[in-house]
């Protein structure tokens, strides 16, 4: 229990660190130069940014979060958003990520099983080539290829396509890991023993092998969850989905500094929650993890 | 030489070949490329052929990947060496910092760093850092944590060997052991980690450039695809996307093959 609490504290410390780091980074931006560069903000807008960030006020660094919780609009123009709108957009992105996660897991298990089978046959090369194609493909490329057929149609099709597109890389990554773990387990003595005692291969796989493979899968779920959520930024941009990724990119492009500060912190919080959940799940399903930590 | 696995050779030849091709086709003889390009002209920039943009972009992407990969590897190596040399609380603090940076998504942090860097450059405070330097620095600042963790773990494993304990018992200091006994064993692993950072840096740069946040000229593959995307959606244009995609895949394939083979080779040596 103490170890779980330590883990919790370690992870949660990340959130204020990100909050303070992103605040001071944004607050330090030199937005008030005399340059006539068109990307520069006007003196009025720069002053507005400083008010928005609470620069010069006592405990000014809390200003973006005060505005967030009091329901005020974050940001200096009409593109600024309220806390409720931020949550709504975040739930859209998380929703796409949650649809993508089972797709990625299904693709991972399927790919791992196929890879194990291919290894003995003439398709062995596919086990190496498919991951290379998936790893070398940024999310926006399949999205771009699908977009002309999808972007004009509604009825959640863009959301579903975004989920499919962002599940490709994590699914292949997980599949490679699970495939390697599966291969290691299949070569162990207990599998040979079970088969020689007359158990059919399906039962051996389901009852004996897979329980030993799940921990490897769970170890990789945290980076995959990060990839799913961050990957949705590009897919949202291409499919025109008005969720958190789109909001974040526009906030950066339009220099909505308070929105960037709060969004970065919110995103880090989501990642911490995901990481903790996976950690707890890992301890729940894998007795060896509990013993290792005890 | 014979200890380098075949897969690593294939990967390295692919990388060097792509680099040479992008230099010759994209930088030295762009006119010849423009005149013979079977893919036609870019939808948004009719003055340039798709091949010119793809191979020119490949050169920029490769240069960014190499520079950012090298810088993040050096940073990671320095942090790992510092952690192992200090030990105790300093090592734990450094490891927690590594965890914190590692937990954040690259794309999101690079976007923030680009915003900050561009504001500094606009204010004339960029210290001579152009868009290329800014992108390399941003990628290195988010990319050092992975190498640092890998190098630290590898150093901890190598330090467990008997001859290292003997060197310490004979009075060898931390820096001496690191320089004379550990570094030769770590070298192939450093190369493998550097090659594994290459695709990651290129893909992160491509995604950030695709959003239109980076201002690099000449355009990288990601920025080229980003500037073409509206035309792609409304007019269709696989011919514009597929060459750049193919080059990215080949680049990542080369780096992955070399990195995996060298990483596996150095693991077997230990």
UniProtKB/TrEMBL annotation, chain A:
Q: Fetch the InterPro entries from UniProt.
A: MetI-like, MetI-like_sf
CDD domains xref list: TM_PBP2
In Pfam terms, one family for this protein is BPD_transp_1
**Topological category with respect to the lipid bilayer:** Multi-pass membrane protein
Q: Name one GO biological process term.
A: transmembrane transport
Where in or outside the cell it occurs: the entry states: Cell membrane
Keywords for this protein = Cell membrane, Membrane, Transmembrane, Transmembrane helix, Transport
> Among the entry's GO cellular component annotations, what is one?
plasma membrane
User: Where does the sequence pass through the membrane?
Assistant: 12-31, 94-114, 126-150, 156-178, 216-235, 257-281
Primary location group = membrane
Q: Which domain of life is it from?
A: Bacteria
Q: Which residues form the ABC transmembrane type-1 domain?
A: 90-282
Hey, which family's this protein in?
Answer: Belongs to the binding-protein-dependent transport system permease family.
Protein name, please? Answer: ABC transporter permease subunit
TrEMBL record, chain B:
Where is this gene product found? Answer: Cell membrane
Per the UniProt record, the lineage of the source organism begins with:
Bacteria, Pseudomonadati, Myxococcota, Myxococcia, Myxococcales
Q: What PANTHER family does its record include?
A: D,D-DIPEPTIDE TRANSPORT SYSTEM PERMEASE PROTEIN DDPC-RELATED, OLIGOPEPTIDE TRANSPORT SYSTEM PERMEASE PROTEIN APPC
In Swiss-Prot or TrEMBL terms, this protein is called ABC transporter permease subunit
Tell me what topology the record assigns in the membrane. Answer: Multi-pass membrane protein
Task: Tell me where the transmembrane regions lie.
Answer: 58-82, 94-116, 128-146, 242-262
InterPro entries from the UniProt entry = BP-dependent_transpt_permease (IPR050366), MetI-like (IPR000515), MetI-like_sf (IPR035906)
Cite the entry's keywords alphabetically: Cell membrane, Membrane, Transmembrane, Transmembrane helix, Transport
Pfam families, per the entry: BPD_transp_1
Q: Cite a GO CC annotation.
A: plasma membrane
GO BP annotations listed? transmembrane transport
Q: Where is the ABC transmembrane type-1 domain?
A: 58-259
Q: Does the keyword Repeat apply?
A: no
What species is this protein from?
Answer: Corallococcus exiguus
| Family from the record | Belongs to the binding-protein-dependent transport system permease family.
Q: What is the predominant subcellular site recorded for this chain?
A: membrane
């Amino acid at each position: 229990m103490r170890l779980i609490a330590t883990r919790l504290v370690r992870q949660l410390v990340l959130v204020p660190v990100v909050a303070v780091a992103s605040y001071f980074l944004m607050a330090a931006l030199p937005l008030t130069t005399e340059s006539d560069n068109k990307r520069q903000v006007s003196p009025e807008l720069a002053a507005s940014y400083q008010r928005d960030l609470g620069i010069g006020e006592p405990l000014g660094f809390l200003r973006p979060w005060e505005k967030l919780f009091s329901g005020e609009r974050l940001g200096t123009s009409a593109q600024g958003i309220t806390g409720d709108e931020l949550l709504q957009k975040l739930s859209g992105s998380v929703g796409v990520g949650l649809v993508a996660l089972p797709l990625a897991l299904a693709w991972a298990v399927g790919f791992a099983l196929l890879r194990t089978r291919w290894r003995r046959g003439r398709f062995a090369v596919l086990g190496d080539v498919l991951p290379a194609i998936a790893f070398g493909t940024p999310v926006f490329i399949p999205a771009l290829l699908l977009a002309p057929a999808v972007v004009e149609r509604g009825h959640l099709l863009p959301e579903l396509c975004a989920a499919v597109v962002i599940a490709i890389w994590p699914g292949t990554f997980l599949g490679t890991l699970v495939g390697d773990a599966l291969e290691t387990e299949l070569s162990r003595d207990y599998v040979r023993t079970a088969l020689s005692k007359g158990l059919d291969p399906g039962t051996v796989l389901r009852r004996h092998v897979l329980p030993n493979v799940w921990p490897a899968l769970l170890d990789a779920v945290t980076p995959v969850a990060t990839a799913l959520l961050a990957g949705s930024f590009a897919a949202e941009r291409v499919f025109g989905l008005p969720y958190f990724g789109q909001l974040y990119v526009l906030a950066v492009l339009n220099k909505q500094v308070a929105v960037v500060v709060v969004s970065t912190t919110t995103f880090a919080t989501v990642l911490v929650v995901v990481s903790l959940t996976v950690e707890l799940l890992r301890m729940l399903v894998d007795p060896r993890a509990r013993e290792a930590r005890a | 030489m014979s200890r380098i696995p075949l897969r690593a050779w294939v990967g390295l030849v692919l990388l060097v070949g792509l680099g040479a091709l992008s230099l010759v086709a994209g930088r030295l003889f762009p006119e010849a490329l423009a005149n013979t390009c079977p893919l036609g002209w870019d939808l948004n920039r009719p003055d340039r052929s798709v091949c010119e943009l793809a191979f020119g972009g490949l050169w920029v992407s490769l240069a960014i990947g190499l520079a950012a990969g090298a810088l993040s590897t050096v940073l990671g190596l320095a942090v790992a060496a510092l952690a192992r040399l200090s030990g105790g609380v300093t090592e734990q603090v450094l490891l927690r910092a590594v965890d914190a940076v590692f937990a954040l998504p690259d794309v999101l942090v690079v976007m923030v760093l680009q915003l900050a860097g561009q504001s500094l450059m606009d204010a004339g405070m960029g210290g001579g850092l152009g868009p290329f330097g800014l992108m390399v620095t941003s990628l290195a600042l988010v990319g050092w944590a992975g190498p640092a963790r890998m190098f630290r773990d590898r150093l901890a494993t190598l330090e467990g060997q008997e001859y290292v304990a003997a060197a310490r018992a004979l009075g060898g200091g931390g820096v001496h052991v690191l320089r004379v006994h550990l570094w030769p064993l770590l070298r192939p692993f450093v190369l493998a980690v550097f090659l594994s950072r290459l695709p990651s840096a290129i893909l992160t740069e491509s995604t950030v450039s695709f959003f239109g946040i980076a201002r690099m000229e000449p355009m990288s593959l990601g920025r080229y695809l980003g500037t073409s995307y509206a035309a792609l959606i409304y007019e269709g244009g696989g011919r514009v996307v597929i060459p750049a995609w193919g080059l990215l895949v080949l680049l990542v394939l080369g780096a992955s093959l070399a990195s995996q083979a060298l990483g596996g080779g150095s693991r077997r040596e230990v």
